[in-house]
Design a protein that fits this description.
The chain is an alpha+beta fold and 486 residues long. Among the domains are: 200 residues, Glutaredoxin (3-Layer(aba) Sandwich); 98 residues, no CATH class. 50% of the residues lie in helices and 6% in strands. The strands form two sheets. Strands 3-2-5-6-7 form a five-stranded mixed sheet, sandwiched between helices. A two-stranded antiparallel ribbon has the order 1-4. Strand 5 and strand 6 form a beta hairpin. The longest helix has 16 residues. The N terminus and C terminus are likely disordered.
Length: 486
């Protein structure tokens, strides 16, 4: 995750791009000319914003917009790997594609070595145009990068996703946008496709102050301030929160050292000053950190303190990194606390959505687990798994189950899948719930339908927490409950 800065004067920015002046004068976080290039060029990027919109309108095509910056790990991964992926490049042929970057990688009319097919002047002009018309900078002019936006053929925002996403998540966005624009499209999602957790339908994220990830320079400065006890305004907790948003090795090392020392963040619930500090910091990792923080969460998922262990397991569910599977399985095999064991089942599904062993474990638990709490959460967890006939058959049976909690959990799983093909089944289930006056089931079906129609998971928060027995909020999925928890 990273940010890139708004050009203070659009005319000056364009002049700078056209003249080949190194960097963007006076704008923090924008690399100078000849920044290290990460080659990517398999997508045929358009040279200008207005021309791209005109072409999309004329040809009835979706516009794919990639916002990128130099010198930050998540952005480099997108440029070097994700935009090269065969699935993505094939899907991109059905769209009009734009990339926005304020950096300059070579002079004049040479093809950009980072993105290919266009010049650096082109992607810099696109960057300026997008900031004025599509993106939402914060008060200092920063926007989130990487960020991906899909526009309909008329130029209206269909969906967007802030921060780094995987190939499977970007595939889901492409297919969803393309099929929305052309319902007759034969495109189908692969088993790897997944809806992004931070999906924004019909809009883009507002990069409010304090919500944007810091640049590498800012991270190193924040770490130095915390170590010296000179964090701005004495806000040590705020500084730590910003540090853990960065995918930088120094940030991970520093946050891990804070967790091991038992410090970091304010108390949870008004207790003594040191009470719950690691618990609080681990919670923030689940909400804000990039997936690379899974190793920290995995270490504390074995911790003796139940509260910290519980937060670590929920963080693993939210981070959803396949590399955490081994650690999740190991803890699941020895966990004795049911309230944490049920969250480990959810983490197993989230991280192992494409894993055959995880799939078998969860399908079996959803059908045969005798402990109601564990069975209900195994049913919920099915919503994270890759589509398949076996899963569809299981969810259909669970939605028709006579047990109120089981069928309510199944409705929640269908919402988590964000698979619109379940709308008809959920509408029938909603009528059944109303006829039988099953309020919990009714609430879950109504919320699931709203999720499938809007793409937003927020409506699912209350019915899911009620049926699954959740006590730890999952803001990464459902959005913030209250400002002070961010």
């Amino acid at each position: 995750m990273a940010v890139t800065a708004l050009l203070p004067a659009l005319s000056a920015a364009v002049a700078c791009a056209l003249s080949g002046v190194p960097g963007v004068p006076g704008v923090p976080g924008v690399p100078a000319v000849f920044a290290p290039a990460v080659p990517a060029g398999d997508i045929a990027w358009e040279a200008g914003f207005e021309a791209a919109i005109a072409r999309a309108r004329e040809e009835g095509k979706v516009v794919f917009v990639a916002v990128n910056m130099d010198g930050e790990r998540a952005n480099d991964v997108m440029a070097a790997k994700v935009y090269h992926d065969k699935t993505i490049t094939e899907l991109a042929r059905s769209a009009v594609c734009l990339v926005a970057s304020a950096a300059e990688h070579t002079h004049g009319e040479r093809t950009c070595p980072r993105f290919g097919t266009i010049t650096c002047q082109d992607h810099r002009r696109v960057d300026v145009a997008l900031r004025g018309q599509i993106l939402k900078p914060d008060a200092q002019g920063f926007v989130i990068a990487p960020q991906h936006v899909f526009l309909d053929p008329q130029g209206a925002v269909m969906l967007s996703v802030p921060y780094q996403i995987s190939v499977g998540e970007l595939e889901w966005c492409f297919v969803t946008a393309l099929k929305s624009a052309d319902p007759s499209s034969p495109l189908q999602l692969s088993a790897e496709a997944r809806p992004p957790k931070r999906l924004v339908m019909e809009g883009v994220v507002d990069a409010g102050e304090g919500d944007r990830p810091p640049t590498r320079e800012e991270v190193l400065a924040l770490i130095a301030e915390v170590k010296k006890g000179t964090a701005r305004g004495g806000d040590r907790q705020g500084a730590l929160r910003r540090i853990l948003m960065a995918d930088e090795p120094e940030a991970l090392d520093f946050i891990l050292s804070e967790m091991r020392r038992g410090e970091g963040g304010g108390p949870r619930g008004g207790g003594p000053p040191n009470e719950g500090r690691r618990e609080r910091l681990m919670h923030l990792i689940g909400v804000h950190s990039p997936a690379s923080y899974w190793e920290i969460a995995a270490e504390f998922a074995t911790f003796s303190d139940d509260a910290i262990r519980a937060e670590a397991v929920v963080a693993l569910e939210e981070l959803a990194d396949p590399r955490s599977l081994k650690a999740i399985r190991a803890q699941l095999a020895k966990e004795k606390e049911p309230a944490i064991e049920k969250d480990l089942l959810r983490a197993l599904a989230s991280a192992g959505s494409n894993d055959k062993k995880a799939r078998a474990t969860l399908l079996k638990a959803a059908e045969k687990e005798k402990d109601e709490l564990l069975r209900v959460n195994a049913v919920v967890a099915l919503g994270y798994l890759a589509p398949g006939d076996d899963l569809r058959e299981a969810l259909a049976a669970l939605l028709a189950d006579e047990g109120s909690k089981v069928r309510t959990a199944a409705a929640c799983a269908l919402a988590l899948s964000r698979d619109k093909s379940w709308v008809e089944a959920l509408e029938a289930a909603l009528k059944r719930a109303q006829d039988e006056k099953d309020r919990a089931f009714e609430s879950a079906c109504a919320a699931a339908l709203e999720v499938l129609k809007s793409g937003r998971l927020a409506p699912l928060r209350e019915p899911l927490e009620a049926v699954a027995g959740d006590t730890i909020p999952r803001e990464r999925l459902f959005g913030p409950l209250e400002r002070e928890r961010r």
